[in-house]
Amino acid sequence: MSPSEEPKTPAPPEPSPLVAMVIARLGALVLAHASFRGDDCIHVARENLLEAARALRDTPELGFDLLLDVTCVDYFGQPDGFHNAPETWDRNHAVVRRRAEWRHRVNMPARGGEPRFALVYHLTSTRLLHRLRVKSRVPEDDPTIASLSGLWPGANWLERETYDLYGIRFKDHPDLRRIYLYDEFVGHPLRKDYSKHDEQPIQAYVGPGSDQPRRPR
Amino acid sequence: MSDQDQTSRAALANLAAADSRADLHTPLMRMQMGPSHPATHGTVKMVLDLDGERVVKADIQVGYLHRGFEKECESGYYYQNIPYTDRLNYSSPMLNNVGYCLAVEKLMDLRTPPRCDYIRVIAGEISRMCDHYLCLGAMALELAAMTPFLYLLEARELMCDLLDALCGARVTTNYIRIGGVSADLPDGFDGFAGERLDRSLKLLEDADKLLTQNPVFRERVEGTGHLPPAELIGHGVTGPLLRAGGVAYDVRRVQPYLVYGDLDFDIPVGEHSDNFDRYLVRLEEIRQSRRIIAQCFEKIPAGPVNSDDPRVRWPRKGKVFGRMEELIDQFKLVTEGGLIPPGEVYHAVEGANGELGFYIVSDGTGKPYKCRCRAPSFSNMSALEKMITGGMLADVVPTFDLINMIGGECDR
């Protein structure tokens, strides 16, 4: 093997003009960045999310005043780029191996070592018309992150949806209730370990805000 | 007394301070409006605390049409998910088809032929007109104006005729494909479409004459549902609602996709951010869509309508039955769903109610790892509480109607 063919560690990507501007303003708050097909993305630590979001909104040159979307991706510990995806993550295979008596269980592959969830925020500016995606990883054993509903009131419902479907707890959220499913529903259906075929009987009504135990699973 | 009542009373106290008749108020009444209410077109429940006829507090509860769109998408191949997108905003299904397919094409870095782009714009604008006709017609009906409703629904039927001619279905179209469309325009479509569009615009003018200068209608919509533009932006409101507040944010203009950059059309904006401006913006958008379609028929080039990229192009049936390579090609495309690179993209189009975005995460297999729809109705509905609080109960109906909440899209 000639030296030119040896595998090299990829150099960190050159930031796009927008990402360079964001890094210049936010500095060390930006852990990593990526640009793919023209979409700019930055990663921030979850402790710094609120500070970074406030800077993105209030810095005049950035001016991200419109929070378009809040959602979550259950990466199951895999890195963002799914470096070894085909070998470790074959969902067709998982479906085949599922046995009928274990309907609630999906044979999941070994998890990766990264924090399990990634919160994803899509921002745009109605004045400067640029777009940015902000991602923040959240571990499974403590799925909490700061709420952005103090900065953008529209985050209220979007975070309720994320809480409902992924079980992420938003700190200082004014009204963290389920929004689509009923309060007694067990589990969070968009997590990868909640099988699509996982049927659930209608849970007994105990009323909102009640301390009564939920029906055992 | 529950916590909710306590908050309501505090809100009432604020109102009362500004009201000279403060000591005349009666106990609050809690009214449950919905989930199935004759004056709302959409399944949504509004729990309203009323002081007389004034709304003191509102709790909007959505989710009655939740069908697990995202979960369902994660278990289907990319091309199998297109019919699900029809069911998001079922009054403008083409726009959802276009948005989803453009997002997947962005992920694959795929270019479609120019004729395909024009056909997508035509189909999308027909759908946008459909949606606005339905919104305005249903609003008129719920404000007790029966005649405009009949005119506008007839206009919408004419648009559905066009969708029928394009793809054989009037509502659940499933017309756009990844890398193309399912069929070219039928012969003589521009003449057929021109005649239907002119008839529908004539009906729109009639409805316009019946409504816009009607004092009873003006009384209901002028000045109601007001929310300043800064708050609209804070709530993530986009589309006709935001433009009625004077912010000219339209994805077709700020980030042109398909061929919108080559077309000449205006973005109507309002100035008062009330229901009347929202109504006027939608009226004008229908006329602008007509302009866009007319230009597309003039400019549309001849040529193929489907991409020739082997990752998405299905081989011709004649060859599949006679040749080995095409048979394998077809087999792999159907059973493995095509080769999609790993990565994540967000692509937005201008839906009928605002920015409709699809955020797709791919792990390199034929099925999306995550397929998220950024639904305009959902963010728009989150601002409804602010719009109706402090107003009269009767104003809830026009405000809700002009938000045009579509349950399938809001609840997904």
Question: Any overview of this molecule?
Answer:
The complex is a heterodimer of chains A (217) and B (412). Chain A has 217 residues and is an alpha/beta fold. Helices cover 20% and strands 20% of the residues of chain A. Chain A has five helices and seven strands. Chain A has helices at 17-26, 49-58, 85-88, 91-97, 155-166; strands at residues 30-36, 39-44, 66-74, 117-124, 131-138, 144-146, 169-171. Chain B is mostly helical and 412 residues long. In chain B, strand 2 (45-51) and strand 3 form a beta hairpin. The interface between A and B is large, with 43 and 48 residues.
Brief descriptors of the model:
heterodimer, A: 217 residues, alpha/beta, Beta Polymerase, domain 2, 2 domains, two-stranded parallel ribbon, 5 helices, 20% strand, B: 412 residues, mainly alpha, 3-stranded antiparallel sheet, 18 helices, 50% helix
Class from secondary-structure proportions of chain A: alpha/beta
Adjacency order of strands in the biggest sheet of chain B: 1-2-3
Largest sheet of chain A: 5 strands, mixed
Average pLDDT number of chain A: 77
The CATH architecture classification of the largest domain in chain A is 2-Layer Sandwich
pLDDT averaged residue by residue of chain B:
87
Q: Give the class-level CATH name of the largest domain in chain A.
A: Alpha Beta
> What is the first-to-last residue Cα distance of chain B?
35 Å
How many structural units, i.e. domains of chain A? Answer: 2
Oligomer class: heterodimer
